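#help-structures
NK: newbie question, is this the right format to request a structure? protein is Phosphatase PAP2 family protein
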Amino acid sequence: MSEGATLRDGRRVGGAVLAAIAQVVLMVAVLAAYEYGRHLADGRPSEAFAHARWLWDAERTLRLPDEAELQKAALRWDGWVRVANQYYVRVHFPAITAFMIWVYFWRRRGWPRVRAAIVLSAAAALALHFAYPLAPPRMLPGHGLVDLMNVYGPSAYASDPGEGMTNQFAAMPSLHVGWALLVAWGVIRYGRTRWRYLIAAHPVITLLVVVLTANHYWMDGIVGCSLVVAALWLTSAVQSLRDGEPVRAGTSERRDSVGA
């Protein structure tokens, strides 16, 4: 191999490494800003509980299943509780992180769209945390809900809502559920094995876990998923406008090159 070819190969490798580092820095910054922003949105408990009472009544008007009755029925056998708590605490960030790594290194054509969906949904969720503080079901008195993380462990929150860096009044929306849907969508869209459809269970399990553990209402998960769906639609719409084509429900593979 000539010296020039070696130099070009070295530059390509160096460029690829720098590009990967830049994406890591970007996404770490996005996630850190989201988590810190959630903390800054704290401090309005009276509004959070008023919103919680309104949302509870709205869900009953919409005839959504009663979270308290569902949890009570599930607790007839409590062997699932610690597993559910572990799922809530341990799976969310590792799953979205592993998904981002997989897409970036092995399904690169989908990376710009996935990156955009994460950034846009995180920004929208953070705006909602500021605009609509919401106490989670486990903190809502009068409905018989059990704080399963506090009773059984492990818990992701301090026992006092005013302690720690986690904003406990940021139940709306649930990106646990929204990003679980994003992971399922990405694996099904970009995966190649026939087994990829099993990942559809991930958002379903996540929704049941966050509701049964009384960390979120049904509407938190619905809104979280809606933000992700809207972000994915927006990336498709932007690329369609660039290409001068009409927006369609299904997008071609080349459209997945859209950036954030």
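mod (FA): yep, format's fine, and the tokens are attached above. Confidence is low (pLDDT under 50) at residues 249-255.
NK: thank you!
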